Amino acid sequence: MSLIKKCSMCQAPPVVRHSFTKIFFCATCFQINFLNEVHEYVQNYNLIPINSSIVVGVSGGKDSSVLLDVLFKLINTYPDIYVNTTLHMVAVDEGIKNYRDNSLDVVREIQAIYNLPLKIVSFEAYYKRSLDDLIVMLDSTNSSCSFCGILRRSSLQKGANELNLPNMRVATGHNADDNAETVMLNLLRGDSAKLLRCVDPVASLEANGARIKPLAFQAQKDIVLYAFHAKLKYFSTECPYAVTAFRGVARRLIQELSRSNSMCQIQTQEAILSVRGERPTVKVQSCAQCGTAIVGSKCQACEIANSNNAEELRRVLKVK
Q1: Distance between CA 289 and CA 130 in Å, rounded?
Q2: tRNA(Ile)-lysidine/2-thiocytidine synthase N-terminal domain: from which residue to which, for each copy (predicted)?
Q3: 86: buried, middle or exposed (CB in 10 Å: 19+, 13-18, 0-12)?
């Protein structure tokens, strides 16, 4: 990077250029700015009220590792703002052989660094089958990410609920790229209901346990840079099933758009947020089988758990 440029905060030689604003930073100021941006987003949308119990969904990957580090630092830097806020970790073991067991080792190392309580839950315990088992039943990996996403969300919520924490919120490491991809996916699928709620700053289906995404306005590249310069521990191997995900189509579209518009990940979310007040009221009820809050009459997680063959599994997603 040219030394003609200077860090916008301290005038030192820069090593990082912000993905969205294109402002130059030295390594230290980049981390400070990153924390400030997340803090501002959290405060603007009241993601973490006082006396909150924040359950962080951790996988050992860079996004959740950065999320945990940022929340830990914000809570300790601004104790008068994040009053009586506590952090807790929940990890989900999907049962992906030679992958998740390795990442959970990293999760345990991270837990030791921050000295936070950790709970590990699994598909096997909740649904009597692992993701590997589902793939064998399907005899295909084409919809593996869709099934995994349903069961991961449900497992994380169940694990958080079992902690029985007051004023609980469940934080996940979804970033700006993830959210923009989700918007694109819902557009491609024609799912207007999910489209209008997929980037909600606070998604509250559960009476206690609303979901928040503090990194929603942070670029994937900046998260990688933060993890590198903060020297964070994380597991970098990609899930073996990810290569067949339909999300890859949306990812490529967003990447192509971002070449001509560096703010497209933010603007995509802001466009949905600007019309979210126009959406119909969502009816929330509890699943009769597992008790989890659901939208609609059927709990997809339980439908997957109750499926006995590939045809029944595909029927859950309405795929051929």
Answers
A1: 19
A2: 54-238
A3: middle
User: Are residues 167 and 52 in contact, defined by beta-carbon separation less than 8 angstroms?
Assistant: yes
**Per the annotation, does 209 bind a ligand?**
no
56 has binding-site annotation: no
If you write DSSP's letter for every residue of 31-76 in order, what string do you get? HHHHHHHHHHHHHHTT-S-TT-EEEEEE-SSHHHHHHHHHHHHHHH
- Residue 59 counted as an annotated binding residue: yes
Q: Which residue has the tokens 């996988």?
A: 59
Tens digit of each residue's pLDDT, the chain (320 residues): 444 689 999 999 999 999 999 999 999 999 999 999 999 999 999 999 999 999 999 999 999 999 999 999 999 999 999 999 999 999 999 999 999 999 999 999 999 999 999 999 999 999 999 999 999 998 887 788 889 999 999 999 999 999 999 999 999 999 999 999 989 888 888 888 888 888 889 987 766 789 999 999 999 999 999 999 999 999 999 899 887 777 778 888 888 888 888 898 999 888 888 876 666 666 778 888 888 888 777 889 999 999 999 999 988 887 53
pTM of the model: 0.92
State the DSSP string of 228-272. HHTT-----PPPTTGGG-THHHHHHHHHHHHHH-TTHHHHHHHHH
Residue 202, marked binder: no
Number of residues assigned to the chain: 320
Report which of 186, 300, 199, 198 is spatially closest to residue 249, judged by C-alpha positions. 186
Per the annotation, does 95 bind a ligand? no
Q: Structural domains in the chain? A: 41-281 (3.40.50.620)
